[in-house]
Specification:
alpha/beta; TIM Barrel; elongated
């Protein structure tokens, strides 16, 4: 394995010939898109040895997941599910009274397909308001109301048992600073209920660089409390580069 830096006049075929690897391996390893344009100074990963055998690369186990809406193409699911540990079905909302609101489109086929590939279908819970945006008003009303909170947790467990979900992902954004502890308590209570059914609970977090970082994406999330409350967390690292890329920490 080595890194090749693109020079003026380079093409995929020319690099392959000079470095004694195949064009296909360069395209695949670097996720190049036809017609495979290259930029001078671009770093390419080369992972074939000169005898055309694959160079040994250290292996490790990894947990992979992907978010998907019910309007996703079945073909895309078929191509993707073999490589996913979990499919996060996006998304279930709720009212200020804690009533669970399913997606407008039927997601049954997603649950069925995920299970057929050995992938865990995960119910994704989001506080979307009538405008389709994250609503901290909804969050405040539910996490600070014992009645609404317990109703929502009960309806979540019913969905899991009746629909065949294998976990819950809590994706709340723009949480108010004063709801930091109530939100962590909510995550903990959801985990207790869902763990009792044998399934995990995750929580999606904006990537903070310090506990004092300002901004609505950060101030309402206490990493220590949420790390203790959930089975694992998903860091929404698309702010660092590639859109919709997540890293899992357990």
């Amino acid at each position: 394995m080595k890194i090749y830096v693109v020079r003026p006049g380079d093409t995929v075929d020319a690099i392959a010939a000079s470095q004694e690897v195949t064009s296909q391996s360069i395209i695949y390893d670097n996720q190049l898109v036809y017609p495979y344009p290259l930029a001078v100074g671009q770093a390419l990963l080369l992972t074939e040895s000169s005898d055309n055998g694959r160079e040994a690369v250290p292996s490790y186990s990894a947990y992979t997941g992907g978010y998907a809406y019910p309007f996703i193409s079945r073909w895309v699911l078929e191509q993707t599910l073999p490589y996913l540990s979990s499919l996060f079905i996006f998304s279930y909302g709720f009212t200020t009274d804690g009533e669970l609101i399913p997606p407008q489109l039927d997601d049954t086929f997603m649950i069925t397909m995920a299970k057929s590939y050995g992938t865990a279908p995960i119910l994704t819970l989001t506080p979307f308001g009538p405008d389709g945006q994250f609503s901290n008003y909804l969050i405040t009303r539910v996490v600070n109301s014992e009645t609404a909170k317990q109703r929502l947790i009960e309806e979540l467990t019913i969905q899991i048992q009746e629909r065949g979900f294998e976990g819950v992902d809590i994706d709340f954004e723009y949480i108010l600073p004063e709801d930091k502890i109530p939100f962590a308590d909510f995550v903990r209570e959801v985990r207790t209920a869902v763990n009792a059914l044998g399934y995990p609970v995750s929580v999606a977090l904006a990537p903070k660089t310090s506990d004092t970082q300002t901004g609505l994406l950060y101030e309402g999330k206490d990493y220590r409390l949420l790390g203790e409350a959930a089975d694992y967390v998903l860091l929404m690292t698309y702010e660092w580069g590639y859109t919709y890329c997540h890293i899992r920490y357990q």
